[in-house]
Amino acid sequence: MVWLLLPMIAVAGVMMVEGFYAARNAADTAYDRLLMASVLAISERVVVERGELVVDLPYVALDMLSSAAQDRVFYRVVGPNETVVTGYADLPELPDDVDLLAGEPVFFNAVYKDTDVRVAALNRAFVFSDRTEYYRVEVAQTKGERVLLMQEILLRAATRAGILILLAGVITWFGVAKGLAPLTRLQEAVARRSPAELRPIQHDVPQEVAALVRAINTLMARLETNIESVQRFISDAAHQLRTPLATIRGQAELALDQQDSDEVAETLAALAKSTKRTSRLADQLLSLSRISRSEAGRDTHSGVNLTKLASDVTREFVPNGLKPDQEISFEGDEVIKVHGDALLLEELLSNLLENAAQYCPPEAMIDVSVRANGAGTAILDIRDDGPGIAPEERQNVFERFYRVAGSGEQGCGLGLAIVKEIATQHGGHVTVGDGADGTGTTVRVKLPLVL
Ligand SMILES: Nc1ncnc2c1ncn2[C@@H]1O[C@H](COP(=O)(O)OP(=O)(O)OP(=O)(O)O)[C@@H](O)[C@H]1O
Ligand SMILES: [Mg+2]
Q1: Ligand nearest to the CA of 441
Q2: How many whole angstroms from 248 Cα to the centroid of ligand 1?
């Protein structure tokens, strides 16, 4: 409304200014004609009698000028040598820029007796003892009537503009309200929805809003998949927790029933192992939920030296992580910088090292290497010569809770899912391939370099 009405009012203002000049013109044209008629009428009655100019003033000529607004009229007739023949001797002089030619009336504005007046003047020639002489007739009229006419014209114009603006306002108000009614209905329908209701919005909306509704529908569809996957994850997690917890409970009850202290110790050892597995599961679950919330990789300012990070994590892993006689080697280019979160990258690497050590037999060889390829990518390889992962399993192992059957009882199937999540968040990706000489496993993580 404001954007419509303010410009309209501005335009109306401009039109009123134009209207003022037009009205003044119209009033002048109309009343100048009367003034001229009066001047002509007087000039017709100027005669030369015995060498003198004599005026037989026709009073009607002045009467027609002093009308309703009580305009006052003044006149004078000026003979040769500026001698005033009759009338008001002190009428204002002709302005300098007015050129009075014989027979042509002129009009000008002046002030007389402290009042604005309009003056008409006419020069006429007469012949007196073979000489051509001139006399001048001037009639001045106060401007009351003209001002009244002008005011009337302006007032009408202003009234018209006012009514127009008012009408436009009312029409716009109703028009916009009617046009937006579907939006109000849409708003009510959306407000009535329960938070779980993520069906697409199907409402008749104006064309201009249809694109917005489509975008909202797409967002809701994505939200629904997202919520579904979160719910699936929660129920999977609960399910995964149930089995080890049931085992723990069984073992605890068994220990309570057992008399023989050796047997009790054996059961407690098994119970400790189950507890360790469960807390590993809890840790991995926590990692996953932390990663999905983190903003890793989006911070493009800080770079992490992947070579140093990988060599540190590998060195720390050696004392406790390896099985007997397993060996580990590290090889890396000097400085390889990637965007990202150092803690998450450490977690990625420890998961991969744990897997290599866990699924390879003793005396296995594990190689960690970090290098950069020419295409702005850092490549982190963890290679072992263990049992390997069958090609048909290489996609599945990245799924949450997925474990390759018969690979040993430890583990909850989240390690590679965590690795994949971290890699994706850093703008990279991870693949599983053959190890060296076609045996074992290579897990390759590619991350964008800081350029
Ligand atoms: N280096 C490897 N060599 C052989 N098999 C592997 C290797 N790494 C992973 N796997 C296989 O991939 C499966 C998934 O590994 P992942 O790390 O995701 O789960 P996990 O080790 O079972 O559990 P978690 O790591 O969460 O404790 C494992 O069950 C294992 O069979
Ligand atoms: Mg693992």
Answers
A1: 1
A2: 23
**What is the rounded distance in angstroms from the CA atom of residue 365 to the CA atom of residue 384?**
6
Cβ–ligand 1 distance for 413 under 6 Å, the answer yes
In the chain, where the domains are located: 2-151, 296-448
Note the pTM of the prediction, 2 decimals.
0.64
CB neighbours (10 Å) of residue 204? 8
Q: How far is the CA of 355 from the centre of ligand 2 (A)?
A: 4
What tens digit of pLDDT does each residue of 383-399 get?
A: 999 999 999 999 999 99
Q: Give CATH for domain 296-448.
A: 3.30.565.10
Say whether domain 2-151 belongs to CATH 3.30.450: yes
Contacts (Cβ under 8 Å, ≥6 apart) of 9? 165
Q: What is the pLDDT of residues 186-231, one digit of tens each?
A: 889 889 988 888 888 888 888 888 898 999 999 999 999 888 988 9
Say how far apart CA 417 and CA 419 lie, in whole Å. Answer: 5
Atom of ligand 1 nearest to the CA of 413: 19
